[in-house]
Amino acid sequence: MTPAITHTGRNACATSYAFCRRIARTRARNFYYSFLLLSRQQRDAMCAIYAFMRYCDDISEGEGASREAIDRWRRDLDQALNGQYGANPLWPAFHDTVQRYQIPCQYFHEMISGVSSDLEPRQIQTFDELYRYCFQVASVVGLTIIHIFGFESQQALPLAEKCGIAFQLTNILRDVREDAENQRVYIPAEDIQRFSADLGKRNENFIRLLSFEAERGRRYYDESRPLLELVHKRSRASLWALIEIYRRLLTRIERSNFDVLSRRISVPTWEKLGILASAALR
């Protein structure tokens, strides 16, 4: 029998969810807009998962980034999953979300493994290597949040995986300059060599390379499209909005003729609000 939650425990959980909501509101950007179409309980759960993801990224990219910090975070995760929260205010809400929606714990360890691979400079060599990275940092996010959306068919799982690949490929195209400045090159070396491209020079070869990668991303968006019909009906508007925001980002990158070295391309707020309005009417 599951022990009853005490009044003190409920207060701690409510405080934790409020903390996670603040993180999501201020930092989630594309994700947070889609959360607004969910029920309050689902929205809070999304914020808790996002807060965990945000901490993972910060630990891998901050001044104190180290293997020791990642290992500490992994230990904190294991303790939180067992109901031992420590000092970080995100853990009660995170633990409650994982239990409430029966999210497999291995997804969170995959996320940590993915961000830990960013601790040192890297050059992805092949698409197989890139796929594995995208799976760890993005597909497992999709696999996690469809538990919050709700689904019945196991066919949803590989589709959520593909959707995450599409999102991360879009992010990689947007962040070519920023990643290079951090000595991280995610576009596979085999592709760079194929197009004789230099990621520091936006010329014809660069544009052909990024066009090739964008088309690859488009295919993953198209292949994951049936996922919309597999999540619970109450959640479809939120998932549609999330996918549409990322698809629009890829479209903006393409329409700029891959002008990603001089600026950071994004979907403006007014357009995201229009997507939300369209989603609500679906």
Question: On the 0-100 scale, what is the average pLDDT?
Answer: 92
In one word, what is the shape? globular
- Helix share bin: 55-70%
Task: Please report which band the strand proportion falls in: under 5%, 5-15%, 15-25%, 25-35%, 35-45% or over 45%.
Answer: under 5%
Stretches where pLDDT is under 50 for at least 5 consecutive residues are 1-8
Radius of gyration: 19 Å
In short:
With 282 residues, the chain is mostly helical.
Would you kindly provide a written description of the structure presented here, covering whatever features stand out?
This protein is an all-alpha fold. The protein has 13 helices and two strands. It has a two-stranded parallel ribbon. Helix 3 (40-61) packs across helix 5 (91-100). The longest helix has 23 residues, at 127-149. The model is unreliable at 1-8 (pLDDT under 50).
Helix and strand arrangement:
Elements: H1 7-27, H2 30-35, H3 40-61, H4 67-81, H5 91-100, H6 106-116, E1 122-123, H7 127-149, H8 156-174, H9 176-181, E2 184-185, H10 189-194, H11 204-224, H12 236-255, H13 269-281
Helix pairs in contact: 1-3, 1-5, 3-5, 3-6, 3-7, 4-6, 6-7, 7-8, 8-11, 8-12, 11-12, 12-13
